[in-house]
Structures are given as C-alpha cells and as structure tokens.
C-alpha cells in the first residue's frame, strides 16, 4: 500500500510539472499528442469554455432561453435561435436539435459560423436547442436537490419518456408548426423511445439521426462492461454519487486536455466505446 501511494504521489508531481497547454483544438488527433501551444495545427477556441448564450451572441445571432418542466419535475433549459444574422424573421419551419451522452446543446455551436445551429439559422430555420436532464443547462428540479442520489436516478428511458415530450410540446405550442427533429447519438435513442411510446403524437414530421444509437451488441467494450457491472457498480456509484454527466465532463477537462501525454490514453478510452475509426471522428470537436 505504501509503495502504491508513493507511486501515485510521484505520478501526480510529474503531471503537475508538465506544461499545461492552452490550445484546446487541433486539426488531427496526432496533433493533440504534441505540445499544442507550439504546434501550428492547434489553436485556442474560446467557444469550448463559453456558455451557450455567450457563444450565440459572440457571433451576432439572437438568443432566447426558456425553462420547461417535465411531468416528473425536472426543469430543462431550451435555447432558441429564431433566425439568422442577415434576417429578422423566421422563414422556415422549427428545427429541434438534441444532444448526445454527457454533452449539452453547446455541441451544436462550437465550430464557429459553420456550426450546425448557425447554418440552420442562416438558412432561415427556427432553431431550438434541447438539453436533457442532468446536463449542464438542465440541472434543477421542482423539489429534488441536484446533489442527491434521487435527482440522478434516471436513464435514457426517462429522456425519451419525459424530457422530449416536455420540450417538443413546448416548441409546438410556441411555433404552432410541425417540427423537424435532429438528434445526435443518445438524442436519437431518446427520440425512438419517445416516438414508439407516443405513436399518436403528430408534432414531429421529420426525424434525422446523426450517429444513431440503438443496438450495442457490436460494441465489445460495453458488452464487457455489462458483464462486470455487478462488481464495478458500487465503486462507481460511490465516486460519482450517480452524477455521470458532470463527472465525465470534468474528467476530460482536467485529466485529458491540459497535458498532451494524457490525451492518447483518453482517446483510447473514447474509442473503446465509439470504435477505432479516426476517419469517423472529428478531431476539432
């Protein structure tokens, strides 16, 4: 035990003495493993550290912020970009964008003016950005403390059964139009749950799935993890108190991004889940 503790202290000292890179975006994955502050292929993108309203206003777009309460008491934040920067009115239908696992609606806005949210707004669409419970912008409840285990006792099932109906109904009531739904990863999973549970809902007339997540039997890491879950569930629960969303974001920010030597290990862990294909992953995002 003493030897292990000593090694942990040594590793900690070494990591702290490493040069922490400010540049947070690179053009290739290999560039991340270098000294990013001296690499011409890397740069600093402030959007990765700004709030959604700050990002939107930084590029000159209008922004609205709405609170929506689900039937089981979670308070969700829905952002709206009603039109582009060159128009004052919305000319096309509402588009609802829903993020994936462990991220938030800002993921649709972090690549500058070529971000999907801005491109849709400039094309004349009424852009709505949803946020699942537990994410950065949907971290409150009518009566539950967001530090309690009860607050975090939910799964993707609740995202589809409660979060999407509340958000979609709100957008429908405001716009009085059919909605085009665009989900990414877990955002598609929740959509399939929502639409299969409420087949008579007619508020969505178009569903676009980016990296749709339905079956996981081909993901070896998840299959392996499911087999050992009985063993690891208790320590994971103890460490996170069930708060997977904020913990995962914090881990990446402080354990992966600052130090190039750690980026490759973090990338390896990510690809164990997402698949070993650099061609299908965007290093910029």
Automatic annotation (TrEMBL):
Belongs to the AB hydrolase superfamily. Lipase family. GO terms for biological process: lipid catabolic process. It comes from Photinus pyralis (Common eastern firefly). It comes from the Eukaryota. This is Partial AB-hydrolase lipase domain-containing protein. Residues 1-20 form the signal peptide. It holds the Pfam family Abhydro_lipase. Keywords: Glycoprotein, Hydrolase, Lipid degradation, Lipid metabolism, Signal. Residues 52-111 form the Partial AB-hydrolase lipase domain. One of its GO terms (molecular function) is hydrolase activity. SUPFAM superfamilies: alpha/beta-Hydrolases (SSF53474).
